Amino acid sequence: MNRFQKTDAASYPVRFRYEALRSLMNSNVHALKMLGDLGADLNHARYFDPRIKVPVQRLIHESFLMVQELNLLAENRYDDLYEVLSSIRNETERIFNTLPESPGDALALSLDTEDALDHRQVGTKASMLARISRHMPGTVPPGFVISAKGYRHFLDANDLNERIRLLIHNLDMRKDQETFNVRTRTIREWVMQARIPDEIIGAIEASAKATAVGDDKWAVRASAVDEDLSHTFASQYESMTGVTTQNLTDAYRRVIASRFSDQAVSYRIHSGFREVRTPMAVLFMPMIDMTLRGYIQTRDINNPQENVMELHIKAMDDPLKSDVFRVMGGRALRWIENYDQKDTAKGTLTQQKLTEERLCDIAGQGQIARERIGDDLHIEWALDQNGTLKILQAQRLELAQPEEMKRTNHDSRILAMGGISIVPGRAEGNALYLKSPAHFTPAHKGSIVIVDEALPDFGPILTDIAALLVIGGHPTDSLATLARECSLPTIFQMGPVARRLVGKRRISVNTMKRTVYEGSRWRSMRERVFARMAESNRVKGRSPLYDRLLRLNMTDPDQPSFKAKNCLSIQDTVLFIHEMSVRSMFGFGDQQTGLFSTSSRLKTDLPFKCQVIDMDHAVSSPKKNPLPEDILSLPFNALWKGVSDKNLIWTQHWKHEMAGLHPDLKEAVFESNKGPRRVTDMNYVIVSKDYMNFNARLFHHYIMVDSHMGPGAENNEIHFRFRGSGGIEKNRSRCASFIETVLGRRGFSLDRKGDIVTAWMRCYARDESEKVLEDLGRLVVCVRELDAILKNDADISRYADHFIKGSYTIFA
Amino acid sequence: MELLNLFKRSVSGKSGINELYLDHLRYIKLLENTRIIMNLFGDGQEKACGEYILDVHYVTAMVEETIRVLGTLVFDACVMRNHGGDALFHQWDDQKKRAGKILLSVQNGSWLQGSSGNEDPEYRLLKDVLNWFDPEKGDKKSSVMGFVREIFNHIMTRTCTVPFPFTDMPALAIPCQGIVHRIHFLPVGDETPLSGKSSVEASDCRPLRVMFRDSPQNAITSDSGLAHVRWAAVMNGPFMSLGFREGNRILCQVDICLSGERDGDYVFVFMHDRMIPEPLIPLEFSTSKINDGILAWCYDRPAAVMDDTLALLGSRLFSTPLGLEQILSDIRR
Amino acid sequence: MDMKNIKIMVIDDESIVGKRLKPALEKTGAQVETFEDPESALAHFYENPTDIVVTDIRMDKIDGIEILDRVLAKSGQTKVIIITGYATVEIAREALSKGAFDFIAKPFKPSDLRVIIERAAQDLTP
Q1: CATH class of A108-286
Q2: pTM of the entire structure?
Q3: Which of A52, A77, A444, B143 has the least C-beta neighbours within 10 A?
Q4: Residues of A whose CB is below 8 A from C97
């Protein structure tokens, strides 16, 4: 028999091609999952860890095989991909073969040792103190650190790594606070119940004995490691004071547990910190019997160009009360003024205890520290019983430089003035009053947020807002430090006047001038705000593998640059392969229709053209135009039940909008001639009794549904792919967001890249799979012209709610 | 015709290297999937001893997973050797029908009937499935294991369409008991394990070093007059594939993974009957006869045992090459 | 706590589980009750809370996670061990984060579960 004649069942080349496509669909999902897992793994493990190396090699192998399959389907048109993958393979091998210099492996280190200068071992806090002690002997009290290695050892000994990783995966306080709180609490409980290894206990006891001076009271503080040294994690972790020697071990455990406070975990997640790069060391220092204490900022943050320091003296009985002095730096220190005029002209707290000369001495120590360290500093100090200055903590001071901006609106009304500038800068956005960070949603991104108090709980949202206005607060609050780290324009102590801004749509703020204006005041400010937010949200300290594995460089398949040779990473390659394999499905369908006539046109009253390709007698009685009910394919029947739901309305928005226009003009206006298929081209469904691949262009969009359904659950799978094409970008994006929302709620695993949404669901029982396919059928119809209906981002949720409830009239 | 082009593969130069590398990767995947099937069977046998608490889902999952993996094996075999692949697809369809009957019995509840008093129906169902895998009596050919043998038959005994691209593959010459084994290695990556190396011991390829560990290598001043055997090797981290062909027919292929991870390591061998394989395969290997040769495998052993077994195989293959001598004398004639 | 004073409840809608686990766990000295219907099991638990509850995760009427929630709400001391035939990361995550003591995947030997139960018993305060 001539195998190219129409046969009762698929001939071998046809069968092989169909199996190749199925293999590619499955491999694509598998690759996406591996990429997702790798992204998570790189958060918790070093790149040279075998837990990373083996999956990376496997992923590269699988990618090669996917390319081979694609080339088998596409007649070797994508040979370039072999070179791309070879280059990625070679580079990853080079990266694996280059081990970084590893830090030392001591569990405990004294602050006066050489290794204590290494922030990777002792954390930024302790290493800064070690540096100051080195340059200014006698100013830093003795102390010791249980190192980052100790932390890792603690986790390993209690099998906590995997369990913590399991719970932290995909956590987002903003999306689901209850789950977030439950999981972080569980982690803290695990830590509190964990056994401290004997080596660590021994190290603490021995070091305490060697370090102890005077009273049996210790301060135990977290000294977090940030390998990039760009963040302080200010007030994110617990500090304990007045701890007796007997309780040091317990205090160690508590400080470790504080690493998993709601606030700390949220901060790390939303600031893009990888867990593996931010282990925790713990600093132990005997407490000073102090007569006076305070802090120094070696630069006035509001006027960084002037050489002026701020010296704060705190009341011993009330740390919120302080005198603030400004001291001119340079060769001779000169006291300028008492900054805070509220209490007295010269400060009653200090008047009896310190002369001006002594004030300048203290500030002078700050100046020396600044010169020796080479950075502006925030220094906490105390005077002991002998009047000697002791430096207790020090961290780099973030100074933001305001940009020069051209003013566009000279008439913008001033809405509010006042407060203290914490971070100078300008911003523009909608005013949003928040009682709690839990009320912040993704829709609020880019707002100017107004809050009552400077609670550190607001830390996680700082990278997503344009500016922060605090009605109360104090410049020494940790939220101020966090705002500086994000370079977020911020005003504290604005007072009740800030409440006038609530409800205002668009406002502009100049935090240096402590003024809020109505409307937009500066050109391009909005774009600058979003650029700053994007920069703040950039994941810190990417693994060297990231660029070659995970970075997505190509997102738009309709761009001329979407070519095999432009793939730079595995992520690009997987996306490219998937797109090309979907296109080859269309080619396959065209072949069956044109060349081999092994397909037939589906007969339906719905405004939808589709050819059916029958793989194994799924069409009950072969005919030229089978009806949907003639097709004995489980997944197809389920999908079609949804597509033909009588409650759906097949909208004709664009047809009405463009009525009377020449077809070429219509296509050009809506760019619907973009992409591999025209609107008028045929759509296809490949069917067998337990399988279906539905591939269609529906107006602007490409939709693919691929499903296998057997009697058992194990091999039941549904793959869905949506790709927007043509039309307005914002509208396409909303469509994709709508699909993502609906499918996410329906229980699909999701991957979204730009306008491409890939979703999959596996191992559900047959009846559940059928229901899901019915829903997908309805989704296919509702999404057809959705970009004509969704006018703004707030509509996405609303439409998704209607769809989930089964109410479809809104899509008309 | 377009569809004929579907199976067209390039044969020269860089593409030849690509093809060999891709075959190697695809075969690794095939071996890993075969191992899955064998582990499913082994696990099922262990559970069937009666001590376990298991549910019917365990059994149905085993059936479905088997069908899925068989499908992957068939597809991979057809990619590697496309001619005659339709027969494999038909056989897979037959296996699906048999599996379908088992799953249907679970769906309609008939699996619960017919159990004897003390035997739980889950165990009886499991035994039926194990019988489908590899019956003690009766038709073994239509069993799962029989089908897996058939798949290997397809790969190993069919003509390879792409010859080894020896001219593009640098070689290391290893003289052993009067035969010079020229190991031509595929240049994968910037640094290949044999680049610039003068001996096996110096190479970065652990599987090769272990294979030659117990094979005494002779120092030779001249290799004229000695028989030469050309092997093609793909060395890829812990993986190595070492193959010897006569024309385009595979005579011997050894595939190894020595990562040090017990649950990942294996040695898998095919030897054509012309190699007279029986005395060459150590006892530590499990074996199975296929059309024109023997399959042999060794896995799930501690790392030291894997090394010893591989070294023994290597010493027999390179130091007492019974079959090779016959083949080589045929070549010389 | 001594195993002889331990009360264990086993909930699984598949009869093979209760049938095999009861004698196996009674060997430890514990008192064991088995239920195939989760609703009856819960009703019984409310009347007579047990020290340890071993429950399957997927049952028709009430699933294991709901049983976990309701048992812990009634008696925070009770240790809940989840049996799953679908060992997935998500289930492990959810069970652990909601306070399950541990979980075990089918198929398992009764002796494997005994080890977990003995650990749970040690954690119980008398």
Answers
A1: alpha beta
A2: 0.74
A3: A77
A4: 167, 179, 182-183, 186
